[in-house]
Amino acid sequence: MPEGDTVWLAARRLREALAGRVLTRADLRVPSLATATLTGRRVDDVVPRGKHLMVRLEQGWTLHSHLRMDGAWRIYAPGQRWRGDPDHQIRAILGNADAVAVGYRLPVLELLRTAEEDTAVGHLGPDLLGPDWNAPEAVRRLLTAPDRPVGEALLDQRNLAGIGNVYKCELCFLRGVTPWTPVGECRDPARMVALAHKLLDANKARHDHITTGDPRRGRSHWVYGRAHQPCLRCGTAIRRAQQGDPGGERVTYWCPSCQRGPAPPPGG
């Protein structure tokens, strides 16, 4: 699932391509929007909210999308060949005289009134990259369930919006706790929240996430994606296990030497 900084960058690129321009093409390839007509409308703005994207149109309409695990928006110049993804995966095409935005594999695509955007995103916690970021409120929400494993709590967008599996693993490593440590047993949750904001903000304009400060291949992450490789800090082999409820598990990485706290349950 894309991290919040990835969605922020996607919103910036869509804004640069679409905002202030009139749509000369609008093709929404989902049954519920088959009769929607957006051609001729001006795009006023493109706004990220956690992992959600809001394309705001004139006359008070918003095209809401969510990338989930593998959705993507790609920008092309008029007449440029669309490459890399088959046409049957296209869910939306928004074009103007200068650019074409193509949405692939979008599991959520809906048209709603801009004034009613909260029906789609009102449940979210403070947005780590939003203009109204509220760190104390994010900490408060995390601590409402002190017995919950911190890895699961960080992924819960109702607590704070924007953290995905990469940052979950990296944050737990940097704070020295296993992802199965109860939130209430984590030392100074406010520092973890502040670090989350710092990491996402530092990476929001990049294609890749770098949490170590070292962009070299295989060294950009402390633990994520490095199962069985030596820890960059202590040399211990990085471990991996599943975390979360059945059907919603995420592959989780940690260093058993650098991180203290509970190990995954048997079968995890």
UniProtKB/TrEMBL annotation:
Its cofactor is Zn(2+). Residues 2-103 form the Formamidopyrimidine-DNA glycosylase catalytic domain. It comes from the Bacteria. The keyword rRNA processing does not apply. Coiled coil: none annotated. Pfam families: Fapy_DNA_glyco (PF01149), zf-FPG_IleRS (PF06827). Its EC number is 4.2.99.18. InterPro entries: DNA_glyclase_Znf_dom_DNA_BS, FPG_cat, FPG_N, H2TH_FPG, Nei2_N, Ribosomal_uS13-like_H2TH, Znf_DNA_glyclase/AP_lyase, Znf_FPG/IleRS. It catalyses: 2'-deoxyribonucleotide-(2'-deoxyribose 5'-phosphate)-2'-deoxyribonucleotide-DNA = a 3'-end 2'-deoxyribonucleotide-(2,3-dehydro-2,3-deoxyribose 5'-phosphate)-DNA + a 5'-end 5'-phospho-2'-deoxyribonucleoside-DNA + H(+). Residues 222-260 form the FPG-type domain. The keyword DNA repair applies. Transmembrane segments: none annotated. Keywords: DNA damage, DNA repair, DNA-binding, Glycosidase, Hydrolase, Lyase, Metal-binding, Multifunctional enzyme, Zinc, Zinc-finger. Belongs to the FPG family. PANTHER family: ENDONUCLEASE 8. This is DNA-(apurinic or apyrimidinic site) lyase.
